[in-house]
Design a protein that fits this description.
The chain has 178 residues and is an alpha+beta fold. It has 3 domains: 4-31 and 94-125; 49-85, no CATH class; 134-178. Helix content is 56%, strand content 7%. It has helices spanning 4-29, 97-123, 132-177; strands at 59-60, 70-71, 74-78, 82-85. It has a 4-stranded antiparallel β-sheet, with no helix packed on it. Strand 2 and strand 3 (74-78) form a beta hairpin. The longest helix has 46 residues, at 132-177.
Length: 178
């Protein structure tokens, strides 16, 4: 199991990834809705000439068109000399509003859970509620314990070495007897 700081970093990485995924989902699956004051880009509806955007937003052609025509730039809504283009869509079809809102609730719930995990990991970090002096004292105490443990380990290694020698001597003496 990883230490708390590593767990916290992993959790923050997951939170950032989830946030990006949520934004991407919202961007690609939001239901379309008309923007007030903007023309309708549905080629199957008829347009009133007053709904045509100004010439700066339109592509001008010298040939009059009749009906709708399509070129490599996308569908056109023709008038006498001005046609408006809509760039081809790279987004998938939008999700119906009910499904989209249900998915948003689930994504929000997942983000809240991950954020609560981050808060918990931060709250259990050691030394969060102690002063600098207390932390230095604790570090000194742990260093003393580490020195004692290292001395004990060195004694155990020396005892193991002596025991291996004794076992070797016993094996050699048994071998000489037979």
């Amino acid at each position: 199991m990883a230490d708390r700081l590593t767990q916290l970093q992993d959790c923050l990485d997951d939170l950032a990834t989830q946030m990006y995924a949520c934004l991407r989902y919202i961007h690609t699956h939001h239901p379309n809705s008309p923007i007030p004051g903007q023309p309708d880009h549905n080629p199957h509806t008829t347009r009133h000439p007053s709904s045509i955007p100004p010439a700066s937003d339109a592509v001008t052609t010298s040939e009059p068109t009749n009906g709708t025509a399509a070129t490599s730039q996308g569908p056109f809504t023709p008038t006498t000399n001005t046609v408006t283009t809509q760039p081809p869509s790279t987004n998938p079809a939008p999700t119906p509003a009910e499904g989209f809102h249900a998915a948003l609730k689930e994504l929000a719930r997942d983000l809240i859970l991950k954020e609560q995990q981050v808060e918990y990991l931060v709250s259990v970090l050691p030394g969060l509620r102690s002063s600098e002096r207390e932390q230095h004292a604790r570090i000194a105490e742990l260093e003393a314990q580490l020195v004692a443990a290292e001395e004990e380990r060195a004694r155990a290694v020396e005892m193991k070495r002596r025991m291996v020698e004794r076992v070797g001597e016993v094996l050699l003496s048994v071998r000489r007897v037979y």
